[in-house]
């Protein structure tokens, strides 16, 4: 099966005077699992539809390998597509659905049945081949949609929120199967989601899209640990922002606690420090430390989540995991918050961009 590199060069889509995609450039490698992640309305589906050929591109170019495909119609791009609403034919059996794209390509006889069977086996739906879609669960229908997309041996697989109609547990199982199958087939895959956990778990690389532009591009771990700006820090995972003043490589946080952080020594000015719930240790209240009061605690199995009102500061979330969970903590307890200096990120308060050194 051939797989393609997908290059997007300044892709722009305008509706009236609104830019749904604003000069987006991305270089997606052959065989890569690439995710477009962003909040509702940020332009991810519009971009995917331009790659598919369903939406004409207003400005910019899209290439599959070195071939520009702007004017190639959707049905000639050899792409597989999976949508959130499955889009399988209700009047055809599972096998009929899977064979559909092959028949459209004039594939017949043994090759037709062999290829359909191979795709159904891969998606573990071969035992359901004679059922109608109405006799299938949501997860099974989505497997049919996937089998139908990969059976044609597409050069590029495009998926738009394929798991969003499934329940939470099934989403996790399905995303693992999608990832395994994608690696097995080595098809360049472009996946759209607004679910950051799904994106982190499934992707080789992620582009964070906001207001029609790319905010950050990188591997999941890089995006989580080194967000380029406050939007990304807030959108990926949970972050709370604390005011600080930076000078000589040291940040004084909330006027209380000085920490030496990985920023330029020359940088001087107001900053925001982002803190994730797992980057804080709680202790007994202590002079010279950031302090607060527990306003809520929620037991979540392997960890306890606290909401803490910081003195002269914002509300912050803190997680305490099983090994260090102090089950005697209760509402209104006073605590100190020790921030893990190697983990927190610092942003310029005005531009909201990171000032962390690499
Ligand atoms: N045909 C259209 N005419 C006018 N505006 C449109 C059209 N299609 C999309 N838009 C607008 O473009 C923006 C981007 O839409 P798009 O569907 O790409 O967002 P999205 O990031 O995929 O969001 P969601 O996760 O909600 O599907 C939205 O503000 C949307 O209202």
Structural description of this entry:
- This protein is an alpha+beta fold.
- It folds into 2 domains: 6-227, Rossmann fold (3-Layer(aba) Sandwich), CATH 3.40.50; 238-348, OB fold (Dihydrolipoamide Acetyltransferase, E2P) (Beta Barrel), CATH 2.40.50.
- The chain is built from 8 helices and 20 strands.
- The strands form 4 sheets. A 6-stranded mixed β-sheet has the order 6-7-8-3-9-10, with helices on both faces.
- A hairpin with a 3-residue loop joins β12 (250-253) and β13.
- α2 packs across α3, α2 runs parallel beside α4 (138-150) and α3 packs across α4.
- The longest helix is centred in the middle third of the chain and has 18 residues, at 168-185.
- The site of adenosine-5'-triphosphate has 11 residues, from α1.
- Pfam families: ABC_tran, TOBE_2.
- One of its GO terms (cellular component) is ATP-binding cassette (ABC) transporter complex, substrate-binding subunit-containing.
- This is ABC transporter ATP-binding protein.
Chain-wise SSE layout:
Blueprint (H helix, E strand, L loop, with lengths): L5 E10 L2 E11 L4 E5 L6 H9 L6 E6 L2 E2 L10 E4 L11 H11 L4 H14 L15 H13 L5 E5 L7 H18 L2 E6 L2 H7 L2 E6 L2 E6 L1 H6 L4 H6 L4 E8 L2 E4 L3 E4 L8 E7 L4 E4 L6 E10 L3 E8 L4 E7 L12 E6 L5 E4 L10
Parallel strand pairs: 3-8, 3-9, 6-7, 7-8
Antiparallel strand pairs: 1-2, 1-4, 4-5, 9-10, 11-12, 11-14, 12-13, 14-20, 15-19, 16-17, 16-19, 17-18
Helix pairs in contact: 2-3, 2-4, 3-4
Bound molecules: adenosine-5'-triphosphate.
Protein name: ABC transporter ATP-binding protein
GO molecular function: ABC-type transporter activity; ATP binding; ATP hydrolysis activity
Keywords: ATP-binding, Cell membrane, Membrane, Nucleotide-binding, Translocase, Transport
């Amino acid at each position: 099966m051939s797989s393609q590199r997908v290059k997007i060069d300044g892709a722009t889509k305008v509706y009236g005077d609104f830019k749904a995609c604003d000069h987006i450039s991305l270089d997606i490698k052959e065989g890569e699992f690439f995710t477009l992640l962003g909040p509702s309305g940020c332009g991810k589906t519009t971009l995917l539809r331009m790659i598919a050929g369903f939406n004409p591109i207003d400005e910019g170019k899209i290439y599959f390998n070195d071939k520009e495909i702007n004017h190639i119609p959707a049905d000639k791009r050899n792409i597989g597509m999976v949508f959130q609403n499955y889009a399988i034919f209700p009047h055809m059996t599972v096998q009929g659905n899977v064979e559909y794209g092959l028949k459209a390509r004039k594939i017949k006889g043994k090759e037709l049945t062999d290829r359909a069977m191979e795709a159904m086996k891969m998606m573990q739906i071969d035992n359901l081949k004679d059922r109608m879609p109405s006799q299938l669960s949501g997860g099974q229908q989505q497997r049919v949609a996937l089998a139908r997309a990969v059976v044609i041996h597409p050069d590029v697989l495009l998926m738009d929120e394929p798991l969003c109609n499934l329940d939470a547990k099934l989403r996790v199982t399905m995303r693992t199967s999608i990832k395994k199958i994608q690696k097995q087939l080595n098809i360049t895959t472009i996946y759209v989601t607004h679910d950051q956990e799904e994106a982190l778990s499934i992707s080789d690389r992620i582009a964070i899209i906001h207001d029609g532009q790319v905010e950050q591009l990188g591997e999941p771990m890089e995006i989580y640990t080194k967000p380029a700006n406050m939007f990304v820090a807030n959108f990926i995972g949970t972050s709370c922002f604390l005011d600080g003043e930076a000078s000589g490589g040291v940040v004084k946080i909330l006027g209380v606690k000085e920490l030496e952080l990985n920023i330029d020594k020359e940088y001087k000015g107001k900053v925001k420090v982002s803190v994730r719930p797992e980057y804080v240790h709680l202790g007994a209240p202590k002079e010279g430390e950031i302090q607060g009061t527990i306003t809520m605690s929620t037991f979540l199995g392997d960890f306890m989540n606290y909401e803490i009102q910081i003195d002269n500061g914002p509300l912050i979330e803190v997680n305490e995991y099983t090994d260090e969970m102090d089950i005697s903590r209760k509402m209104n307890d006073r605590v100190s918050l020790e921030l893990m200096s190697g983990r927190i990120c610092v942003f310029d308060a005005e531009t909201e961009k990171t000032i962390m050194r690499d």
